[in-house]
Amino acid sequence: MPTPWKCSPEELHKKYIANTEAFYRTAGRGLAEEMDRFCADCAVKLFACGSSLGQEQVDAVNALYSQGRPQPTWLLWGLSESVCRGGDFLPPLFFWSLTESDAREGTEVSRVFIRMLTNILLYLSAVDDDITAAEADFIASCAEKLGALCDSAGVKKGRPGLCAQDFVTSDEPPFTTKPGAPIPPELLKDLPDRSGKLPPLGGDGSLPGPSAAPAVAGETADPAVPSPETPAEEKPDLDALLAELDALVGLTEVKKDVRSMMNLIRVRKLRVEAGLPVPPMSMHLVFMGNPGTGKTTVARLVGSLYAAIGALSKGQLVEVDRSGLVAGYVGQTALKTQQVIESALGGVLFVDEAYSLSEGGENDFGREAIDTLLKAMEDHRDDLVVIVAGYTGPMEGFIDSNPGLQSRFNKYIYFPDYTGEELLAIFNGQVERAGYCLSDEAAEYAKGYFDALYAERDENFGNGRDVRNRFEDMVVRHANRVAAIEQPDRDALMTLQREDFLSEEEKAAEAAADPGAADPGAAADVDASEEPPASDAPSAPETDAPAGEDSHG
């Protein structure tokens, strides 16, 4: 049945501003960026519990931005990929600091934050006019975990927040738990299986990691939030995983190294079964290379491959960086790191920019995270693989900084920059998977563009990330151009033109270099910033507003 929590994207943004502004007056506006990122991550995990996924959810997550902050630009295919990847809820880094401050000063800002988050998640769950039991359970679980941290830190009790289960409107199961259920047509282009059916589900009903994500090296998730991928009940198919590895663009030597590790582990197991002695062996790895070179993609495959041959029990990937391991006060870092380790048991813990853990000096809490990792690597050496990654020079210094790291990491894999030809291949793959095609002029321009991008690369070169960013910008410019066409046909909806490749700055530079050249896209310019008219929505129920503010604007 309908829920009075439903509101338009414009109203949702106003309610988000009302809640967060009240919170910032107490906790400080410096938390705005991390708050927006955390709420978006919560939205992604919440949507995985919903009965459907479509444009309503995209519009909702794009409404989550604090006053003075840029609006997000999520697209449906990107959101669907993130939702299908799943992941566990983890508190934001600043929440640990809030609990410590509250315990010290006798305040309850952290408990106000919990009530505020509950409000926001209830609005998000209602964007499709339905709050399912699974969504309510997720919201309640978030509040419970955050409340437990408040209790452990000694924060004084506050008034209870809303109970999400009181607003359930249906028992509709999450869309990811419906085997054989049709997928909305707009999502089909993002899944490897285009038959219209969901691929085999994992043990908890989620889409399996290897098949849910595009096989394009260089695409990574937000490293600030650990994102474990739920493995399937059955062991992943080894041949299919090796084929996925081989299908990655470039990375010839990386593929050889991974296959060599696979062969070494398999033969070692055979020797054990035959009663033959085996030398000590570490499965932990060091990935070195520039950003966007496919390190996360390969790490995900390594976890699945190790599980396929029985070296790991699950094979999931948990990705973190320093902010996911290090807390702000003495004693918290070990606890925070241990929580991440526990979520990675049976799979791979991928620590991006790991060198940052050792760069803070003798009293830095990063060293506490290193010590906790080293102990876990020893205690769980048969069912945990740790992969540390980052730039080549800093990573060499990181390993040399600690004898324990030197003894546990002895296998290095180097990820080279993609060539212009490889960047073009990655780009063409993204275009095809997203259901677009290139005009002849656009294809010719793309080849020259990526050749020049590689030839003129500097220390800011992003490899696959640059390709992804360029493609996403093209999709936006294509949408702005096609929106001006009264009745666009199928070709217009699918074809990316040369003008879609160019930003306004690039068009201006090109026009200045060749004043006689006409801009073919000038007539199609539209004002994409024009806001749609606000819709009349039913009044939301009375909510628990943080810091005395009306939480629904």
Overview of the structural elements:
The chain is mostly helical. The protein folds into three domains: 9-177, no CATH class; 208-415, Rossmann fold (3-Layer(aba) Sandwich); 420-509, Orthogonal Bundle (Helicase, Ruva Protein, domain 3), CATH 1.10.8. Helices cover 49% and strands 5% of the residues. It contains 23 helices and seven strands. The strands form two sheets. It has a five-stranded parallel beta sheet with strand order 2-3-4-1-5, sandwiched between helices. Strands 6-7 form a two-stranded parallel sheet. Helix 15 (366-379) links the parallel strand 3 and strand 4 (385-390). Helix 5 (93-105) packs across helix 7, helix 10 packs antiparallel against helix 12 (295-308) and helix 18 packs across helix 20 (464-482). The longest helix has 22 residues, at 252-273. The radius of gyration is 25 Å and the shape is globular. The two termini are 24 Å apart.
